[in-house]
Amino acid sequence: MTKKEIPNDYYTMYEDRYQRIYKHGLKKWTRCVLDKELDVFVETADLKKDMLGIDIGCGEGFNSIYLSGKGMSMTGVDYSTTGLEKAREFSAKENRTVDFVQDDALILSKFCNNTFDFGVSTGCLHMLVKQSDRDKLFQQIKRVLKPNGIFFFLNRGDGVNEEYPDIENYLETREWRLVEGPKHIPVDILKLPHLPTWVKNWEHHLKEIDDNGFKVIHRFESINEAYSNSMCVIIKNKF
Ligand SMILES: C[S@@+](CC[C@H](N)C(=O)[O-])C[C@H]1O[C@@H](n2cnc3c(N)ncnc32)[C@H](O)[C@@H]1O
Q1: Which residues lie closer than 8 Å to 105 by C-beta, 6 or more apart?
Q2: CB of 149 closer than 6 angstroms to any ligand 1 atom
Q3: Does residue 123 line the site of ligand 1, with CB under 6 A?
Q4: CATH fold for the domain made of 12-237
Q5: Global pTM?
Q6: Which residue minimizes the CA distance to atom 23 of ligand 1?
Q7: What is the Cα–Cα distance from 132 to 154, expressed in whole angstroms?
């Protein structure tokens, strides 16, 4: 593979990252502290206990675990075996019952139509660097949500500046400052392959939402320890 080519299944590369991190003896890569953003979603969407939710690209499961603590019945989906192993470990430690399932978010082959009352996805859409893949994710969300279902996205971006996928340097190893705990205490430096991300501004993000048949219920920006500047959006089926 030359440097400029991105394989079709480029998004499976996260598995490699999780493996390297945990092999290195670290407990966690980043503690995902998105509780306040999720709280806005819970309130705006008026989520109730026992509602069925899906967390797409759940990684180590922090969002699923948090929402399950609020009484929702959560299913976390990710491609990465190691991410899911950690998610199961963390949820067991917190006595949360979450169903963690391995699947490709672009296909969601293990889920029936009209299943979930709501869904969340943080830090996954910005990893998809082909518009066709981003559209596939939107279409799967539409398919597995109930017709009146509601969905929360959080992705990197300050709403103004765009970051195009750095395909030239795809998989080049770079130094990452690894952190642990809610205060992001630096614990080590580890070399990890760089994965490109596609950060859109509000105009382009809203366009893809509209193009895929969703309407925006609420949007806001946040700065958080997990992703720094982030764009948050709550969406529903247009029709
Ligand atoms: C930046 S991490 C975010 C993890 C978690 N949502 C959080 O915020 O802590 C992105 C996650 O998306 C997952 N992912 C990316 N593309 C995927 C796909 N097509 N199918 C399933 N998971 C995918 C990766 O494996 C990774 O765990």
Answers
A1: 56, 57, 77, 78, 79, 121, 124, 137, 140
A2: no
A3: yes
A4: Rossmann fold (3.40.50)
A5: 0.91
A6: 57
A7: 19
